[in-house]
Specification:
Blueprint (H helix, E strand, L loop, with lengths): L5 H12 L21 H9 L7 H5 L10 H26 L4 H7 L3 E3 L13 E4 L3 E4 L1 H6 L1 H4 L2 H7 L4 H17 L5 H4 L1 E7 L2 E6 L1 H15 L8 H8 L3 H14 L12
Parallel strand pairs: 1-3
Antiparallel strand pairs: 2-3, 4-5
Helix pairs in contact: 2-8, 2-12, 2-13, 4-11, 5-9, 9-11, 12-13
């Protein structure tokens, strides 16, 4: 098990909060004092954000974030959302199932459920190991198992299996790997610079993560974006860090973070 003292949590905070599933640039959380929010309040508020309201958060860790204005980010966000949705619809139609476990079997993917990554030195919720392996790490899920039974959390998240949402996300990365030369999230690039005939074009990393969130949302028939789980799963490690992440998400969405009521 991970040592949960303050120093360890701070060491892992960048890795935890850098994204739920993505492998983007490290995030250094603000260390100003924060009011701890109840998990139920966090998920309720975040579940009410619409897809586009996640745009600034979705791009916030991307190394190329500063290359786009808000309008451009929203346009890219919508295209990535559409890409993930269309991929989910195509997979559900081809394999005649929306069950993530059955879909993984049909796609020839081996799914394992270890407690933690083998190196034990990082906090990770799920990963796709090309070409045919997905790991869903149960440590994070186990840490929030008691919270899942609380009324406000259950009312906000609905009847879900966290494993299915994580698996759905990683299955999109399987689709990307199988369609690497044709799928939009892999083929869309921007030009960083040009010197004569020499061009430096780069993929936008966050587009894959946005599309994977959309894929899992439609596969699992969720009324909210799975970005909600970024904060919820972090809560199992540190309510402090989850509350900071909640505030950040709300500010990015243009919303005022709520403070808990005395008896909340």
């Amino acid at each position: 098990m991970i040592n949960e003292n303050r120093e360890t949590i701070e060491n892992y905070a960048g890795q935890i909060s850098s994204r739920l599933f993505g492998k983007q640039s490290a995030y250094k959380p603000i260390q100003a004092p924060v009011t701890i929010r109840p998990a139920g309040m966090i998920v309720k508020d975040l579940c009410q954000l619409d897809d586009i309201e996640w745009t600034k958060y979705a791009f916030s860790r991307d190394p190329l974030n500063g290359k786009f204005n808000d309008e451009e980010k929203e346009q890219l966000m919508q295209k990535a959302l559409d890409c993930g949705r269309d991929a989910a619809i195509e997979c559900m139609s081809r394999y005649e199932t929306n069950d993530p476990t059955e879909l993984a079997k049909a796609m020839g993917i081996e799914v394992s459920y270890p407690s933690q990554p083998q190196d034990g030195g990082r906090v990770l919720f799920a990963e796709f190991c090309p070409p045919r392996e997905i790991n869903i790490f149960l440590d994070a899920i186990d840490r929030v198992s008691e919270l899942m039974g609380k009324k406000r959390v259950k009312n906000a998240l609905g009847e879900i299996r966290l494993e299915d949402i994580l698996l759905g996300h990683e299955l999109f990365h399987v689709v990307e790997d199988q369609q690497i030369n044709t799928i939009w999230t892999k083929t869309h690039k921007i030009q960083l610079w040009r010197i004569g005939p020499i061009r430096n074009n780069s993929r936008i990393i966050s587009l894959s993560e946005i599309a994977a969130m959309s894929f899992s949302k439609h596969l699992n028939n969720l009324p909210y974006m799975p970005y909600v789980l970024d904060a919820f799963l972090v809560y199992g490690y540190s309510p402090d860090m989850a509350s900071r992440l909640y505030k950040e998400m709300m500010y990015y969405a243009g919303k005022e973070p709520r403070k808990p009521r005395p008896k909340e």
